[in-house]
Each structure stands twice: as C-alpha cells, then as structure tokens.
Write a structure and sequence with these properties.
Helices cover about 35% and strands about 15% of the residues. It is of the alpha/beta class. This is FAD-dependent oxidoreductase 2 FAD-binding domain-containing protein.
C-alpha cells in the first residue's frame, strides 16, 4: 500500500489526508505543534467561498464558477493573476463545499456577499465560527480513521519535519524530530501543507527578507505560521521556481485592539463578515471613508490614509440587525473584552466623543444609499442590514 506523508495539520493538510484515504493509500499526518490540529483555519470566522453550490441554489442566488473566476482575476490584477490556479480554485469550489457538507456534515447553509465578490458566495453555518466547524469535523473523522484496525491513518503531533529526503530530483520522504530531539526518517510521497509565514518576525525570517516594511505590524496568525514548508522546499538543491510571490503578504483591514493589552503583537481578527452583514468603518469624527465591501487591499489602503492624516482610531460600528445575524461572533468578542455593546446611538456618540446629530446623519445617509434614494459617495453597491 502506498504511503503518503502530509506535513501540516490545518484545513489544507486535513483535507489532503482525507483525500489520500479516499484514494486507497495510507497517510501519516505530521504536525509540529501539540496538542491540537487546525492551524489558522480554526480562526476563519467569515466562511468559505464557492460558486454554483447547492446552498446558493436553495437561496436563489445566481452565480457561476466563471463569475467567481472573473472576480478573482480582477482582484489579483493582470500582474499576479495566474489563470491555471484561479481556474483550479473556482471550478472546484462548489465540489469542495459539497464534500465538506456531505462527507463531514459541516453546516454551510448561509451565504453572504463579502468584499471583492460580485455575488453572495461566502458560506458559513448557523452556529459558531465556520473555520472551527470545518476543521473540527475533519479532525474528528481522521481521529476515527486512526482507530480503525486497518491502521491506514496516523496522526503524529509534536513532530517537526526538519528535512526532505531525496533520490535524485525526487522527494522520497522526510526527516522529523520530536520533543526529545530524536530524528526519525519516514519514506513516502510528501505533501507540504504548512501554511504561511505571517508570524515569522525573526530578524532573518521570511517577512524580514521579503517585506521588511511590514515587520512593525501586528499579526492575527498563530505562532505556528513561520513558513516551515517554505524553508524546507527552498533548502532543496533543485528548488528554483518552487516558491513564488513571496512579497505578496496580505494586510487584513480589521483587527481588534484588546484594551487590556493594546500593544500585543498578536491580535484577534475582526472578521470580514462583520462588515459583510452591515458594519460601518468610521473615523474618529464619526464619518465614513470607504466602501466597507471593497477588496481588502483597497480598504487597507484607505485606512492607512486615515491613520496618517491623524483621523484615527478607526471604529467598526454595527447596528442591532447586523449584530444579531452574527450573534455567536459578537458574543465571543464581547466575552473577550474586544467589543462593546451600547443601548443606542446616543451612547455610541458619547463613547466616540462626537455630536449625536453628526452620527445620526451618517447612519441616515447610509440607509438612504441602501434604499437607492441616493448614490453612495464611496461607490458602495451592496447594502446588508444595519
């Protein structure tokens, strides 16, 4: 029986492991950290994108892989768009979502339109964070496979891959070390699924090497996101061309400032879904400055301008309906002290130290834009509830 080694235990690694099993091979999943799996995928709180899905059809949402392709290509821009990769993502997106729902029982029945998308296609469930819903379901089933007498699945935690083994130009296995620094070899085909390097702030690390201008920013990545896989593959003698676009690090527009630790290097992500259901971004004077549903790079750039002009801090304000739609999210953020709840707009105005009439004007104008009575000055065309 063929043996496949999967390095990394996030959603990509877990999906790869299950796919290996579906194709009749044996899989060994190596995870550097212990005790849990999941990676950054656990933190995903907005959803997973797919076009032409059963959930969209049930909700009478007209969408297609081609429209998803066009949106993705436009978001990437001519310089970065790679048709083969975009096609792989978009043409398989519906099948991937159906795989999660049918094979693992993941609830992805709700569909929202988020930034950069021309149609609602971001899927989540009615419960908590979709990232946890997906990863926990895959973890549970893989653990069950490990217990079967066939022993076709094995999960090895606290096992850091330190070297890729080669025979000529072919990778034939790995060397890994455990907590006691013992190095062991494993033979088999290798899938690298170690995620990104958004938490690698070491002086000679990957962020410093490829985007030193971002070193001062905080991160929402877990401390495992240090580019282990990138280091492994670039250590190969024949690694030319294996890694690309290393400078393309996304700066997410919104994260929470914890009042108890405002200077923390690691922040909680303020999910895009918060804006997707109607949250508004406001300058310190209570006015808007951007289409909250724009692509992330555009929203981030506008936020930079506001901060540089001394118009910060920037607040994300949600109305009752928006907060109700994401109640589980908001309850979690409230419990962590990352979000405040106010009884009315008057209390919000007091907290922001702005005149109530000015804040009322902002929200009344936004309602007017949403109803089509006036055109939004920032070009916003998708208006969820406030």
């Amino acid at each position: 029986m063929n043996q496949v080694i999967v390095v990394g235990g996030g959603l990509a690694g877990l999906s790869a492991a299950h796919t290996v099993l579906e194709h009749g091979a044996k899989v060994i999943l190596l995870v550097r950290h212990s005790p849990s799996l999941g990676g950054n995928s656990v933190k995903a709180s907005s959803g997973i994108n797919g076009a032409g899905t059963q959930s969209q059809e049930r909700l009478n949402i007209s969408d297609s892989p081609q429209v998803f392709y066009d949106d993705t290509a436009a978001s990437a821009g001519a310089k970065l768009a790679r048709p083969d990769l975009i096609n792989a993502l978009t043409s398989n997106s519906a099948a991937a979502i159906e795989w999660l729902t049918s094979h693992f029982g993941v609830d992805l029945s709700l569909v929202s339109r988020l930034g950069g998308h021309s149609n609602p296609r971001t899927h989540r469930g009615t419960g908590g964070a979709p990232g946890w819903a997906m990863t926990s379901a895959l973890m549970k089933k893989l653990a069950a496979e490990e217990e079967k007498p066939e022993k076709r699945a094995r999960i090895m935690k606290n096992s850091k891959v330190v070297k890729l083994l080669q025979n000529g130009d072919k990778v034939t296995g790995v060397e890994y070390e455990t907590g006691n620094s013992e190095v062991t070899k494993l033979e088999g085909s290798v899938i690298i699924a170690t995620g990104g390097f958004g938490a690698d702030f070491s002086p000679s690390g990957l962020i410093s090497t490829h985007r030193p201008d971002l070193m001062a920013l905080p991160t929402v990545n877990g401390d495992h996101a240090t580019g282990d896989g990138h280091v492994l593959v670039t250590s190969l003698p024949t690694h030319a061309g294996i890694v690309i676009d290393m400078d393309q690090i996304q700066v997410h527009p919104t994260g929470f400032i914890d009042p108890a630790n405002p200077d923390a290097k690691t922040k909680f992500l303020a999910a895009e879904a918060l804006r997707g259901v109607g949250g508004l971004l406001l300058k310190k004077d209570g006015t808007r400055f951007v289409d909250e549903m724009e692509k992330r790079d555009i929203v981030t750039a506008k936020m930079w301008e506001v901060i540089k002009d001394g118009q910060g801090p920037i607040r994300l304000v949600m109305g009752v309906q928006a907060a109700t739609e994401l109640k589980s999210h908001c309850d979690f953020y409230l419990s962590k002290g990352l979000m405040q709840k106010f009884s009315d707009l008057h209390e919000v105005a007091q907290n922001m130290n702005v005149p109530l009439k000015d804040l009322e004007r902002v929200f009344d104008s936004h309602k007017s834009y949403a109803s089509g009575q006036e055109k939004d000055p920032f070009g916003k065309s998708s208006f969820p509830q406030l």
